[in-house]
Design a protein that fits this description.
Layout: H1 9-38, H2 45-55, E1 74-82, E2 93-102, E3 107-113, E4 118-121, E5 125-128, H3 130-149, E6 155-160, H4 161-170, E7 174-178, H5 180-190, E8 197-201, H6 203-211, H7 220-238, H8 243-253, E9 258-259, H9 263-277, E10 281-287, E11 293-298, E12 301-306, H10 308-320
Helix pairs in contact: 4-6, 5-6, 6-7
């Protein structure tokens, strides 16, 4: 009679490890399929798994000398707001906020790029940065940020201002602290009766708050600061929500957005970033920063001419946490 060969401790440990990895993989695939089904994004299991096979490697592509991209611990998502008039397919980007998720420092860094930045737009000469989006959409704006500031953009999310107000209403408004002159401006534009202090703003009120420019001497700097305050307030209000709540919100909000992120990439990002969002520190900044630009008039345009090297050094420090 043959004796049973006893498993060595190393062989048993390897079997246990393989079993654990198999379970983890099964849970990951199952969760992906479940969330896609909940969001109405999965026509069939086979299609979902085929997407999984070829879309997974794409998220981290980028040059090794860029801020972000391959081998990096940061994810850069560009939020684009545009003031599209009726009949227009695409207008200049009125607001550009780079949301950087730093998995090492557990920070979410929101960086506004002021629309009057005078930069090189690939294939279109030099102009204000907001002209890049009008000329070539998300792709050209990404290339412009890459060429001028060494940034790798993982994906873009764009919304026009009418939809922005709808989204704020859908989320139940946003809570912000107002100065009296800010409250007066919003009241005049919307027929409201807001006062100074903490207020819950509805969509149209939040939109007017985000567009205030002439109450402060520094103009667009303060306007972009208000936009980041709105985004910070929304993130703070919803980052502790349950998975069910977030899926329900995503199903309603996603149709109001334009994005170059595919369904699988959105799910990958959600799975990758969700664990850090509950306790992440929210950091706010703008480009150009003080001391990294000069005010000039070029071709009749009042522009901000950036010190690109100084700005890239700043972004490497603040976004990478080095």
């Amino acid at each position: 009679m043959k004796r049973k060969r006893r498993s060595s401790p190393a062989r048993s440990a390897m079997k246990l490890l393989c079993l654990m990895l198999g379970l983890v993989l099964a849970v990951m695939v199952g969760a992906t399929v479940y969330f896609q089904a909940q969001m109405g994004m999965l026509p069939s299991l086979e299609e979902g798994l085929s997407k999984l096979d070829w879309e997974l490697p794409e998220l981290s592509l980028g040059k090794t000398d860029q801020i972000g991209g391959r081998g990096s611990h940061v994810v850069n998502i560009l939020l684009i707001g545009q003031d599209r008039r009726e009949g227009e397919e695409r207008a200049r980007s009125d607001s550009m906020i780079l949301c950087t998720f730093n998995k090492k420092t557990k920070q979410v860094i929101m960086t506004s790029f002021l629309r009057d930045l005078y930069v090189t737009i690939p294939g279109h000469g030099a102009n204000r940065i907001n002209a890049a989006y009008a000329a070539g959409g998300m792709e050209l704006l990404d290339k412009t940020l890459e060429e001028n500031f060494g940034l790798h953009i993982d994906g873009n999310v764009e919304v026009d201002f009418d939809r922005f107000a709808e989204i704020i209403d859908l989320l139940g408004g946003v809570e912000l602290e107002l100065r009296q002159d800010e409250a007066d401006f919003i009241n005049e534009e919307t027929g409201s009766s807001l006062t100074a202090g903490w207020q819950r703003l509805a969509g149209e009120q939040a939109l007017m708050y985000s567009r205030i420019r002439k109450l402060d001497a520094d103009g667009d700097f303060s306007r972009t600061n208000r936009q980041r305050k709105v985004m910070s307030a929304l993130l703070s209000a919803y980052r502790g929500s349950s998975a069910g709540t977030m899926v329900s919100l995503l199903k309603q909000v996603l149709p109001m957005l334009d994005t170059d992120l595919g369904n699988m990439k959105l799910l990958m990002l959600a799975a990758e970033l969700a664990p850090m969002l509950g306790s992440a520190e929210i950091v706010s900044q703008h480009v150009p920063a003080p001391g990294t630009y000069t005010d000039q008039t070029i071709d009749g345009m009042a522009v901000l001419v950036p010190d690109k090297e100084a700005i890239q050094t700043m972004l490497e420090k603040t976004l990478l946490g080095e």
